[in-house]
Amino acid sequence: MSTPLRPVVPALAARAEEDLRYIRAVLVSSGRFTAVPGWGAVYMGCVALAAAAVAARCERAEAWLLTWVAAAACAVPGGLLALTRKARALDLPLVSGVGRKFLLGLCPALFVGLVLSVVLHDAGLDALLPLTWLLLYGAAVLAAGAHSIAVVPLMGACFLALGLVAACVPATWGTPLLAAGFGGLHLGFGAWVVRRHGG
After folding, report:
1. Tens of pLDDT along 22-69?
2. Does 10 map to a domain?
3. How many structural domains does the chain have?
């Protein structure tokens, strides 16, 4: 008397479906995060250039810092909104897979930058803020870029280079270097991403 084969077929189909889900998850998590928002970077660059124009006229350190804090408060939400929209358009999740790796690479150094900004300002060391921001933002973008398109780590390296310049020149160069980094680099690389990888 032979054993019926019918129950084996659904079991094989379920196993094959489970294997396909696993393969798809591995491919997504090992891929590159392509939802880098070019228009978001352009927007952030424009905000930074406007902030630099205002900050250059500030005579007091508190007013200078407040200008850059206000700029960050305008630029970061706009950049995040552009990132979210592009990720949705490409059907890439931000909180899992490669999107999660991108954010995990980006956020720790940004958090350190926030903490150090408060500490340096309280200590009256505002002159060190430009090099701190440039170096830590560069480190954040470089780390996130390990899971993204090649232009992202290149931009991070450029921020690091500007941070090194800021460490070697007089403090009066701080605002122009911030304009070159957060303004110029965001505009240039954002335009490159728009042209080569879509908005």
Report:
1. 555 544 444 567 778 899 999 999 999 999 999 999 999 999 999 999
2. no
3. 1
> Is residue 19 in some structural domain?
no
Range of the domain at 85: 35-197
Residues with Cβ within 8 Å of residue 83, at least 6 apart in sequence: 35, 36, 37, 40, 94
- The string of DSSP letters for the chain reads -PPP-TTHHHHHHHHHHHHHHHHHHHHHHHS-B----HHHHHHHHHHHHHHHHHHTT--SHHHHHHHHHHHHHHHHHHHHHHHHHHHHHTT--SSSHHHHHHHHHHHHHHHHHHHHHHHHHHTT-GGGHHHHHHHHHHHHHHHHHTTB-THHHHHHHHHHHHHHHHHHS-GGGHHHHHIIIIIIIHHHHHHHHHHHH--
Q: pTM of the predicted model, to two decimals?
A: 0.81
| Residue the block writes with tokens 């407040």 | 66
Question: Residue 110: inside a domain, yes or no?
Answer: yes
Q: Is residue 4 part of a domain?
A: no
How buried is residue 154: exposed, middle or buried, by Cβ count under 10 Å (0-12/13-18/19+)?
A: middle
Report the chain's C-alpha Rg in angstroms.
Answer: 22
Phi/psi of residue 35, each to 5°?
Answer: -85, 35
Hey, which residues does 33 pair with through a beta bridge? 148
Distance of CA 82 to the CA centre of its chain: 11
